[in-house]
Amino acid sequence: MHKVLIVMHDHAHDDYYRMNKVEFEALPAVGQYLYNTDGLVYQVEEVTNFAGYVSSKGAVALVVIHQVEKELPVNNLYGLNIEEDLDD
To answer: Could you give the CA distance from residue 33 to residue 81 in angstroms, rounded to a whole number?
Structure first.
């Protein structure tokens, strides 16, 4: 598992801030959509790996994301109901 620090890119204010620390089986790719536990969909802008950094408590990469526009089909989770269709 890869522990990463999620960083939000706030386009309205051209600012960045820390969201949370999460784990991925494989690091996400630029352009990939992420569905977060806050019920919103985000798109990956950048993935920055920390060279040679290994820690059981710390992150190994930064993943910079931004929230996608509400009108995009990805916001509908392709017809899935997260409460019924996905495991805990």
So the answer is: 17
